[in-house]
């Protein structure tokens, strides 16, 4: 690679414009769901690809991703087989899950509330009219909201990812990379993942809300 690998934007070092692909060696496409209403079960998809188009104007950047449904793993073969069946992902009929971004916006970084109230309490007591409330300041942050559409079992629904930008640099192998993490929550029944068992004590066997947990690095393409 030649030329500038990074640039400054709103006080942050961000990647140069270009096409970036998800690094298969540095990624996790994970999820978390509740079992028996009390315990979290984590899993992930081992096989996934993503293309990130970094625009000269960062807020015009875009992401597309494809996840191979059959690569699901939770550390239990019987559970994985059930999740792959028609009760859940039905991987024979729907081999992939797809994500396509539709927009991105930066989240302001507000002054931490603890320090805000500490400054307020540190003022000398006096008449109410003399108390000056410190202004909370919006500061540059590496947090973004990535709006988009997730397709599961042929059903497409809007999903907003809460993204944390991890930084950009050139690695020891001469590759231009940047890191990120992202989370979201979806209701699985909205995608036709309806299977469940009612518990005698109340509630259901498998939680209806699924938390998405993503982390990875992306590599700039020549």
Number of strands: 14
Structural class by sheet pairing and helices: mainly beta
* Beta-strand residue percentage: over 45%
Q: What is the number of helical segments per DSSP (H or I, 4+ residues)?
A: 2
Give helix % range: under 10%
* Radius of gyration over C-alpha positions, nearest whole angstrom: 22 Å
Could you give the order of the helices and strands? EEEEEEEHEEHEEEEE
Question: What's the end-to-end separation, in Å?
Answer: 7 Å
Q: Characterize the overall form.
A: globular
Oligomer designation:
single chain
Mean pLDDT over the full residue set: 89
Tell me about the largest β-sheet.
8 strands, antiparallel, barrel
Strand arrangement in the largest pleated sheet:
3-5-6-8-11-12-13-14
Provide the low-confidence segments as ranges.
Answer: none
Describe the structure.
The protein is mostly beta strands and 222 residues long. Helix content is 8%, strand content 51%. The strands form three sheets. It has an eight-stranded antiparallel β-barrel with strand order 3-5-6-8-11-12-13-14. A two-stranded antiparallel ribbon has the order 1-2. The longest helix has 9 residues, at 113-121. The chain is globular.
